[in-house]
């Protein structure tokens, strides 16, 4: 207990905590958008439950990974080299997660622009999304985003208690924002397409990161914020026209 008090008596620890909380919340936005879009495809009585389970799994994965920080750090060590680029477990996980996200976003965009489609490459013989399938897909992306989140945390501080507080705070924000965000997305069809575009961009970014091309997160989130601002102006314009 005295060690904990000594730790948080250091102003630099509080600065690291504040910075890490902001970073974890921002990184959680990607995860939350995917969960919101996916759970909105479930029957109404299952949506809230699925969102809570998905976010709960994100918290469990992040805390579990924090308990194996030494192993997580080793995930960045190269396993093999191709064309002078060393691929680590983290790279492979990011590439696999990015490909899944690109496939999922492309599938949803295809179905949104062509709602009366027949059987095609995206179909699996089922017309509706099952609860277990939704949780499984959320778990896959939770794992990818959790590893990225924890590696970011490890790079910012050496203190595990600080990481735990930041992760718990970020996931709590996700939990509180999940239902309002899901309702907003469901009530605004054009926002769904924008969110799917975000997921497509995030997926491509994960793939690029996996191949060693570092893409500054600031550029990604600035583009997302600008797009969201324009869509907000479009929504205000449509409301104004309806009142005329």
Short description:
This protein is mainly alpha-helical and 244 residues long. 79% of the residues lie in helices and 4% in strands.
The overall pLDDT, averaged over residues, is 76
Gross morphology? globular
- Report the radius of gyration as a whole number of Å: 19 Å
Number of helical stretches of at least 4 residues: 9
Poorly predicted spans: none
- Count of distinct structural domains: 1
How many angstroms separate the termini? 64 Å
Descriptors for this entry?
244 residues, 9 helices, two-stranded antiparallel ribbon, globular, mainly alpha
Written overview of the protein:
The protein is mostly helical and 244 residues long. The chain has one domain. 79% of the residues lie in helices and 4% in strands. The protein contains nine helices and two strands, in the order ααααββααααα. A hairpin with a 2-residue loop joins β1 and β2. The longest helix has 29 residues, at 11-39.
